[in-house]
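Ticket #343: bound-state structure for phosphoenolpyruvate.
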Amino acid sequence: MIIVIKKGALPEQIDEVSTRLVEEGFKVHLSQGVEKTIVGAVGDRTRIKALDLEALPWVEKVVPILAPYKLVSREFHPADSIIQVGGQEIGGDRVHMMAGPCAVESKAQILETAHAVREAGATFLRGGAFKPRTSPYSFQGLEEEGLRYLADAREETGLMVVTEVIDARDVSLVAHYADILQIGARNMQNFILLKEAAKSGKPVLLKRGPSATLEEWMMAAEYIMDGGNYQVMFCERGIRTFESYTRNTLDLSMVPALHALSHLPVIVDPSHGTGRWQLVHPMAKAALAAGADGLIVEVHPQPEKAVSDGKQSLTPEKFKVMMDDLTGLSQALGRPFGDVSLC
Ligand code: PEP
Ligand code: MN
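RESOLUTION: The complex was predicted; output attached.
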């Protein structure tokens, strides 16, 4: 349910609406826009009638949200949500490039990559310290040591760090080092992890599960918002289909679909989305053209030696070529890349 408040209502009048709803057992979320203020109420719909909120002169209307996702929906928050991370805004006037290796392998590797991607125009550094691997015999990540190297790279370059957390027990550790918590595709419906990530207070990059529908994905985001953390962004990273030439099928139709249904930013990962470095640049262009708010791309100084995902990783040289091209495209689209000098 959303309660649309008339323009010019006083804070105490808005408070009164919230108080009445809370007393009736609703969870209340306030969304204050320039044009209108919306009180989102989640709870037993049948109890709203008794409150007769429309009788209050400062209430414009009470509208039910029919979709199962509420806080994530555009009805709840008509304007695009902008997520502030360091000096950068995600979901605002500028798009962002998040780049780095699949996994943090050594201090030298992450520092070299961080400098190279910043030089080329990235504003965020990616890199997994905890790796969710299909095989238990594959490299599982450097864990806290890797997180420390990411923090060192941030110190040196100013790039904000996005890194994955795979276990609810590690959320506070990862949140201590990271600027954005990545929830990986395999964990999209790990509800305990979603709830812990909500409590961390850090922005969350929520990847799409390899077989998740749009609605399931939005409901996963709803868990984080319901936990009180409104700083959520979606990340389309491809889904499993019958196609085997590509690692996944990058479903770019989700970008405009999410923008229509939700106010949250949408990031696209053409690296996992294709599994082939040759396809990363063209699909990154397509993602920006489709309206993505940012990209997350794997870059490795020596992809042939990478411990994971070398096949889909760009060299720093290829990354630079791509960024030069994307910079022109983003300007033509009216949404330049984030300002590296703010890092
Ligand atoms: C990754 O970003 O390295 C990763 C494991 O991604 P995904 O969860 O999309 O597979
Ligand atoms: Mn990877």
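RESOLUTION NOTES: The chain is about 35% helix and 20% strand.
TICKET STATUS: resolved
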